[in-house]
Each structure stands twice: as C-alpha cells, then as structure tokens.
Amino acid sequence: MDLLGLTIKNVSEKLKDGAFSCKELIKECLSIIKINDKKINAFLTLNEDGALKKADEFDNLIKNDKEIFKKKPLLGIPMGVKDLYTTRGIITTAGSKIIKDYNPPFNATVIRRLIDAGVIIVGKTNEDAWGHGSSGENTDYEPTKNPYDLSRVPGGSSSGSGAAVSYGACLVGTGTDTGSSVRLPAGYCNLVGLKPTYGRVSRYGVIAMASSFDSIGHMTKTVYDNAKVLEVTAGVDPYDGTTVPIRVDKYTKVLGQNIKGLKIGLPKEYFVEGLDNKINISIRESLKVFEKLGATIEEITLPHTDFAMAAYYILVPSEVSSNLSRYDGVRYGGPRELFGAEAKRRIMLGSYTLSSGYYDAYYLKAAKVRTLIKQDFENAFKKVDVLIAPTSPTLPFKIGEKVNNPLQMYLSDIFLCPTNLAGIPGLNVPSGFADGLPVGMQIIGSQFSEELLYKVAYLFEQETQHYKIRPQFKNG
Amino acid sequence: MTKKTLTRDDILHIAKLGNLTLNENEIELFKQQLSSVIEYINKLQEVNTEDVEPSSQITGLTDVLREDKINNERTLTSEQALANTKSKEKNLFKVKAILTE
Amino acid sequence: MDKKYQTIIGMEIHVELKTNSKMFCGCKNDPFHAEKPNIYTCPVCLGLPGALPVANKKAIEWTIALGIALGCKINKFSKFDRKHYFYPDLPKGYQISQYDMPFCFDGKVETSFGPIKITRVHLEEDTGKLIHQKVNGRNVSLIDFNRSGVPLVEIVTEPEIYSSVQAKEYAKKLRQIVRYLDISDCDMEKGGMRLEANISLAVIPAKAGIQDKKGNNRLDPLLRGDDKILELPNYKVELKNINSFRFLERGIEYEIERQREILEKGETPIQETRGFNAEKGITYSQRTKEEAADYRYFPDPDLPPININDKWFSEIESQMPEALEDLFARWIKEYKINREMTELLFETSNQAKWLDKLFSEAVKAKLPVDKLINLLIHKKIKTELFEIDQSQIIAEYKKEVTVDELADDEIVNYIKKAVTANPQAVADYKAGKGNAINFLVGAVMREAKKKIEFNRLVKLIKSSV
C-alpha cells in the first residue's frame, strides 16, 4: 500500500472494496511513523495500542454491517491530532512542558465527532507550545522539520500535523488557526488547510490560545478530503456558546461545479515589498489558471492591513495572558516556572496591554481597529466573491533563522492574521513550488463561505495537481 | 497612555501581574524583546478610531444561554477530578498554607 | 480639643443563588449538602484546559429580578468580564464577573435612618472552598471545588451607611428581600450570604452636625453634590467574611474604636482587609494591600453579550411577586396588621401568598386577623404553616378560642371538686403564690372537660376559695 500517494477518498473506497483492512492501514501508518518520525519529530505521543484496537473493531463492523460507511463517513481514516486538542485518556501537552503529563478526562467536541465518524487517532502531534508560533520551533520538545527540506521549518503552530500528513503518517491532521497556524503549515507542507469561519467549528476541549480568534481547522492532501472532514466537525455545540447556529453545508457536493464569472479580488496591500518575488510569480501563474476557469480578477484594497499585525499582537497576547492563568500547578501540571520563553513573553505582553492605565491605549484601541479591519473585508466582499493572496511572504525558512527575533517571527503571519481579526474563513491550497519548496496560496471568503472556497479550490486543484508532488526529505 | 520602551521595573511589574518569576537573563532579554514589540504595536495610535465600536467578539451573537438544568454528562467523580494533581489529601486538592490568622 | 468623627460605611454583600445547576456548567449547585468534596465538578468549573462556559439563563433572570426589587435601573445590554487574580481556590486564574456593565445599577434600600443607595448589582461565579488545617504536622490549605462556579450575586452600596446599627439593618433588610424573591437561602453560617463592610472615619468639620429626629448625624446630603462638606477619608478598612449580623455590628463597633484611637494619635489607619474574631470580639489584619489590585478586566470572549429585550424583560417582571413593601402596605389596609407582626411568619413570596389567602379567609369568617397571627406566632395553633389548606388553620383557631356555655353554679360545682382534690394549690394561693391560680384554672377545666373563659373562671375561683 502506498499511503503517501493515497487520499481519504481513495482509502475509503479501498476499505469498502476490501483492498486492505483497517488494521493493515493503521499498521502501515505506524510503520511509516517509526521509519520517518525520528527525522521529522511530528509526533509527541503515539496511540499505537488504541489505534490498533480501534482498527480491529472497525474491521469487524465492516464485515457485519453493510451500511457502516454511511453511518461513519470517515471510517478507518488515520488522523494526527494537534496536541492542543483534549483527548480522553491520551496525554495532552499543548506542546508544553508545564502539562507534559496531563491526561484529560474528556474529549474535545470535535474529537468526539470525529471518533463517532470513524477516524482512528494514530497520535498527538507536535506544535509550538500553546499555539504560540509560526515555525514549530517554540515547542518545548524537539522542533518539527519540513519533510520537503529537513533544514527548514514546516510552519506553525500546527507543525506536527502539517508534517505528518505531508510525509504520509496519516491522512488528516487537526490544527488550530489563531493567526496562521493551519494555513501556514499547510502552505509550507504542500497541503490543503482550512481556517474555518470563527464560530463554525466548536472550540470546546481545544486548549484555548486566544478565545475570540481560535478557529478549529484541519489539513489534508486534497480539497475533497478537507471538505469531507469539515462536514463532520462543523456545527453548533451547546458547550461552546460562540458556535453559530447556521446550517452545515454538504461541502463535497459542490466540488466540480464551474466557477465561470467568479470575481476574484487581489488585495493590493498583500503584493508589496517584502513579498518574495518567487512567491509573487507562483501566485500570478495560479491566477492565470483561475482566469482559464472563467474567473475575473481585479485589484481591491484592504486599507487597514498595515495595522492588522499590531492589533493582533495586542488582542491575542491579552487573551493569551488570561487563558494561561489557569496553569497554576494545583489541579494539573507543574509550576508556572515551566512556561517556555514565548509563553512568558505573551503572558507579559498581554498583562501589560490589559493593565490599569494601558487598557484604553492598547486593548480597547486594538479592539476598535479590529472593527475597521472587519469592515475592510466586508467592503471588499461587496465587490468580489473571494480574495486570493499569498499565504506567506517567504518560502519555508531555515530552522533557527528567526528564533532570536520574535518580531520578525510574528511578521510571518502578516497575510494570514487579518482574517482571524475579521473572523472569516481562509483556505490554503498549494500554488506550486519554488526552489523545490512548496508555495501556499490562500483563498479568503466572507463569513460562512466555506462551501464557495472549496468549490473554487477544487477546480484549481484538479487543473494543477500540485498535491501529487511528494516530499523528498531533502537535507535529511 | 503608551510607552516607547519598557524599563526593568515595568518588566518586574508585569511579570508579577502574570504570576511569573524571571531570572536576571530573562529580565534583560524580555526588556529588549518586549520593547521592540511595544514600539511596533504603538503604531496603532496613528489610526483614527473615533466613533468606532470595539470588537471583543466577532460573531455578533447575543444571549447564548443554557436552561437551568443539572447535566451530569460532564460531571467527574472526585477520583477523576483529582487524577491529574500532584498534591492531594483524601478527596481534596492540597496547597501550601495560604492564610494565617 | 477632641475631634468629632463620622463613621462612613459602604457594603458589599455576596449572595449565592439557589439555581439547580451552576452558573456556567450543568453541575449540581448544592455545595452545602454534597456528601464528599469535589463531586460536583466538571471540566468547566474545575478550569480544565479547553473547557468553556455557557451562562445559566435563570441566574441572569434572578439577578435582574433582584435589581427590580431594589428599584435599580437595568442595563439592557450587558456582558460578562474576566477579573484576574491568582488564588488556589480560583481555578481559571480569573473570575467571570461583570465590570462596567452590571445587570443592575442605581437602586436603593430604605432603612429607619434613611435610604441607602445601591450602586450596582452584578452576577459572577463563586470560587472553590478553602479549608485550612494541619496535615502531618504541617499547615496546609485544602480545596473543594463543589462550590466553584455557583452563581453569586454581589450587591454594592454607596458609602452612605453611618452606623453599625444601620449597617445591620440594611443587611437584614437585603436578606429579607432576597429571601422573599426565593432566589437564595442566604445561609450565613455556611457562606451562602457573606457580608463585607468598608469602614472609615471622616472628620466632621465644625459647621456640620445636622441631626435627624433620632439624634443621629444626618450626613447623606453632606457627602454628595456641589455643596458637600464632608470629604471621604483617604483610606478604608475592608471588614471581610462576616457570617452573622451580630458579628457585623460588633466588628464595625470595634473598628470604629480602633480607627478613632489611631486618628486621635494623628495617624491614618492602614488600608487593609481585616477579619473578625468572634471569640475575642476583635478584628485582625488579614492582608495589607501594598498596591491597588490590578484585575485586568476585559470582556470574556467565550460568552456572547446579553441583550435583555423588552419581551424578555417583561417576562422577568411578570414572574416577580408583589413588591414586599406593597404587600405590607396592603396588609395594613386590608387586614389591619402591621409588618412587625407578619415579618416573623414568612420568608418567601409563596409563603406570603399562602398567608394572604389565610387572612382573607379569616376576614370572610369574621375572625380577628391580629389575634390569629398572635396565636400563630406563639405556636398556640400547633399546625405546620404553608403545607396545609388554610381552612384547617381557621378550624383550629376556632377550636382554640371557642368557650363552652356553662352557668355560674355549674362552674362552682367543678371548682369545689378541684379545690378538694388540690389542697396544696389552695394553700399556695392563700400564701400568695401567684401561679397557684393558674394551676387551679387548669384543674377545673380538666375536671369539667370543658373550655371556660379564662378571666371569668379566675374570678369565680377567687370568690370560692
């Protein structure tokens, strides 16, 4: 079985046909992990016994119940779970040392839904601790490497999930996107990665980074796979009061429909100095594909883009400082001294921006700028249907290149975090390669426009097929 | 009110607010790193936000409430509640004495 | 020359609401009756990573109802905020509370010394319970989270309370209002109602000294407005965790003396939190506030704001009982009974409704309501109130007060028999022992197996002996 070349769609068909069993599939995943993960560091905890047991159980179900694939749309699909997701009975560290042995007594809502749908958790994946980072290097463990070039970062913070799907350890990896953390690793690892609309997918049980930003997404090889998973994860949750009671579309149904007449907007503020020209060229090439598919392209403006990062780096640390207050070593975990440098920086920055005398100048000001940024997008979507922009201003950078300069690191998210401020969805799709490294392109839509994003991305993917280019473990 | 850079005292004060204890190296490092971040975020002061409502949330939802019903679905046993602590006494969490008369 | 000081008190009172479930999760809200510690907890109220709160609708409605009962204005658009501080009984490192948009503000409570302005009424969550004890010879604090996340209402007054007696009266009045709404048991001993007084002494300038009818300084107009002549002191002492009205009064009295002595020396009392030691009758320092706490409030991003539209507001209003003051006024008018008499009989509005029906039936039966109440208060009618039909009470009352028709000579016959049977009582009576006559009255009634009017019988006994 060539797992690296397979997608969720292929695997579901093969399991149905009996080409291989769930157990064979999971064993193959585990063996790929054992061969490669020493080099990549995608996983923090493996769920070997649990996964094999589940596989046996499903193999029995397949034998006895012809309808089982209808009841469990993701039956047998191996999944890597970002360690920010609470998993009952599987150690959940958030990539940190402070809760390195925390064993949760409950499952996140999304995990519960995915398990009900038949996924098999192969392990918990590495990440920047608490989701704080864009490269994976802020993990309190060994940093994850990019399977396309082991000297480079896989993007963060969902670094392990991105790398794991990319090198064939699993077929879907869950992520969280607070400012970039699904789309950037998807972009750096040649994957499809969704940051859904805020409120589309429940946050309950996903360890909070910044509560009004955290969007619960996932990475897959293809658009179809990605849409299939969202059909399971999306929807209102009574345990998360910020989920919005809007109907969940059957996202896979629209894939293949034409996009003639689609209006694509190019935010001019995203194509400026600082954008690597190789990326610019790749995106421009991709735009030609969209034109071929019948879309029209026009330049639009998001006038407050320049202030998005500043607003983001006030509001997010403010919420981070609050959300990390619960780690006091009383009920679980160790003392606060165990926080890594980045967590400490963000706790301090957020304590400062909320503190007496500074609240108005920082938190409140940023919350107002957030309104302006949201309005920028609303105005843009009056003119066009979707926006297209590079995912990152640079190609995957070298490990260690930015670790001593937090501000430079923060600026990796410059094209991504405005959508989190606005609460709208963004989808990374592979745009091609430059210097042998993946280039990510994001398609941005208005609130709850996931169906449209998938439809647009799918046709592009069918034309280009970049997902078929596999990682070579360069410099390994 | 905004500041251009952070002083050592600022760093100590905000570390205390965040319940963090820092070593000397961290104090110096964070003073520099956070000062450069503060300098960057100060650019927000250029934006005219007169008559702009703040957005602390982005969904526009209001009144998402639960009925007053007991739901034991998530309730933990005391064993489960205490399973992850390193310090307990019978069915209680235990910490150093924090109040003396 | 001795300076004159005016006591200035502002109060903060916390009341635990008796909803079925907790404020932000479905755990049972019953910390006082839990069999074991930490059995009513879940990821939410234990502050586990990833857990999220969802607000209890009833707790919000009850808070607004209390605000209405206190004559407050209601913030139709409100929200919850996070209040940050670190303490082991606070699982999330922040308490979900309300900062700049409390559900209710600007109310008042009447006392016999004048009205007290209610600054705000807001809703928050309670913390876990700390138990301080020795384990293996070491002092430790133990934590039970059964109470964590119980809905807690805080009622804050302006610093417009001017004596310990008034503070006590206010606190009692507030408890009466809360209990009448039946939204809290206000169990003070267990901590279901917690009193906190901010106490300081202001120097009265020579020109002040307006007094009310009772001879107390009336300073409320002097503290407010452009022509205020009394400045609030630059310090205040928080007297915390008081669990009885009597301790509140004694604690404040002690504080007034303690602070006066310090001020007389020309010093300023330290701004601090103090507790009250009931055994020694003194207050003691618990915590000095080196610097003002910085709670870093901001709107809780997990909880969408609350929009109390007109429809919802009227629903809340329509579910409220008749206002307590209106009830007492009506009872005076309809039944000629004053509030002091009836206050002893009930707490909740349901009980008041039950009594209302009793009184109206008594009036219909042409019975004197005041006498009925008297018998009820003195438990002469041995019936559990509120659980039975009012007609039973009426019947018992009639039985209690009805006398049998007997002629004087018949009674005298019974007296003779009783006197013969109880020579000692007669001797006692003659010796001037007053209660011997009561004994004889009882003996006669037992002999006659009849009910005879008391005064008539006493008269007859006296003339026969």
Automatic annotation (TrEMBL), chain A:
Function (record text): Allows the formation of correctly charged Gln-tRNA(Gln) through the transamidation of misacylated Glu-tRNA(Gln) in organisms which lack glutaminyl-tRNA synthetase. The reaction takes place in the presence of glutamine and ATP through an activated gamma-phospho-Glu-tRNA(Gln).
Record's keyword terms, sorted: ATP-binding, Ligase, Nucleotide-binding, Protein biosynthesis, Transferase
Family: Belongs to the amidase family. GatA subfamily.
GO terms, biological process: translation
Catalytic-site annotation from UniProt: K82, S157, S181
Domain Amidase: 24-453
One Gene Ontology CC term in the entry: glutamyl-tRNA(Gln) amidotransferase complex
Catalytic EC class: ligase
NCBIfam families recorded: gatA
Source species, domain of life: Bacteria
Name assigned to this protein: Glutamyl-tRNA(Gln) amidotransferase subunit A
Catalytic activity: L-glutamyl-tRNA(Gln) + L-glutamine + ATP + H2O = L-glutaminyl-tRNA(Gln) + L-glutamate + ADP + phosphate + H(+)
EC number: 6.3.5.7
UniProt source species: Candidatus Roizmanbacteria bacterium GW2011_GWC2_35_12
TrEMBL record, chain B:
Reaction it catalyzes: L-aspartyl-tRNA(Asn) + L-glutamine + ATP + H2O = L-asparaginyl-tRNA(Asn) + L-glutamate + ADP + phosphate + 2 H(+); L-glutamyl-tRNA(Gln) + L-glutamine + ATP + H2O = L-glutaminyl-tRNA(Gln) + L-glutamate + ADP + phosphate + H(+)
EC number: 6.3.5.-
Highest rank taxon of the organism: Bacteria
UniProt keyword annotations, A-Z: ATP-binding, Ligase, Nucleotide-binding, Protein biosynthesis, Transferase
Record GO terms (molecular function): asparaginyl-tRNA synthase (glutamine-hydrolyzing) activity; ATP binding; glutaminyl-tRNA synthase (glutamine-hydrolyzing) activity; transferase activity
SUPFAM superfamilies: Glu-tRNAGln amidotransferase C subunit
One protein family per Pfam: GatC
The UniProt record lists the keyword Ribonucleoprotein: no
Gene Ontology biological process: glutaminyl-tRNAGln biosynthesis via transamidation; regulation of translational fidelity; translation
Signal peptide extent: none
HAMAP family: GatC (MF_00122)
Family: Belongs to the GatC family.
Function as written in the Swiss-Prot or TrEMBL entry: Allows the formation of correctly charged Asn-tRNA(Asn) or Gln-tRNA(Gln) through the transamidation of misacylated Asp-tRNA(Asn) or Glu-tRNA(Gln) in organisms which lack either or both of asparaginyl-tRNA or glutaminyl-tRNA synthetases. The reaction takes place in the presence of glutamine and ATP through an activated phospho-Asp-tRNA(Asn) or phospho-Glu-tRNA(Gln).
Self-association state and partner proteins as the record states: Heterotrimer of A, B and C subunits.
Name under which the protein is recorded: Aspartyl/glutamyl-tRNA(Asn/Gln) amidotransferase subunit C
Source organism phylogeny: Bacteria, Candidatus Roizmaniibacteriota
TrEMBL record, chain C:
Keywords annotated in UniProt: ATP-binding, Ligase, Nucleotide-binding, Protein biosynthesis, Transferase
Pfam family, one: GatB_Yqey
Keyword Repeat attributed: no
InterPro entries: Asn/Gln-tRNA_amidoTrfase_suB/E, Asn/Gln-tRNA_Trfase_suB/E_cat, Asn/Gln_amidotransferase, Asn/Gln_tRNA_amidoTrase-B-like, GatB, GatB_Yqey_C_2, Gln-tRNA_amidoTrfase_suB_CS, Gln_synth/guanido_kin_cat_dom
Swiss-Prot/TrEMBL GO biological process terms: translation
Gene3D superfamilies registered for this protein in UniProt: 1.10.10.410
The keyword Aminoacyl-tRNA synthetase belongs to this UniProt entry's keyword annotation: no
Documented EC number(s): 6.3.5.-
Reactions catalysed, as given in the entry: L-aspartyl-tRNA(Asn) + L-glutamine + ATP + H2O = L-asparaginyl-tRNA(Asn) + L-glutamate + ADP + phosphate + 2 H(+); L-glutamyl-tRNA(Gln) + L-glutamine + ATP + H2O = L-glutaminyl-tRNA(Gln) + L-glutamate + ADP + phosphate + H(+)
Subunit-level organization: Heterotrimer of A, B and C subunits.
Function summary: Allows the formation of correctly charged Asn-tRNA(Asn) or Gln-tRNA(Gln) through the transamidation of misacylated Asp-tRNA(Asn) or Glu-tRNA(Gln) in organisms which lack either or both of asparaginyl-tRNA or glutaminyl-tRNA synthetases. The reaction takes place in the presence of glutamine and ATP through an activated phospho-Asp-tRNA(Asn) or phospho-Glu-tRNA(Gln).
Cross-referenced PANTHER family: GLUTAMYL-TRNA GLN AMIDOTRANSFERASE SUBUNIT B MITOCHONDRIAL AND PROKARYOTIC PET112-RELATED
NCBIfam families noted in UniProt: gatB (TIGR00133), PRK05477.1-2 (NF004012)
Name under which the protein is recorded: Aspartyl/glutamyl-tRNA(Asn/Gln) amidotransferase subunit B
Biological source species: Candidatus Roizmanbacteria bacterium GW2011_GWA2_35_19
Lineage, broadest ranks: Bacteria, Candidatus Roizmaniibacteriota
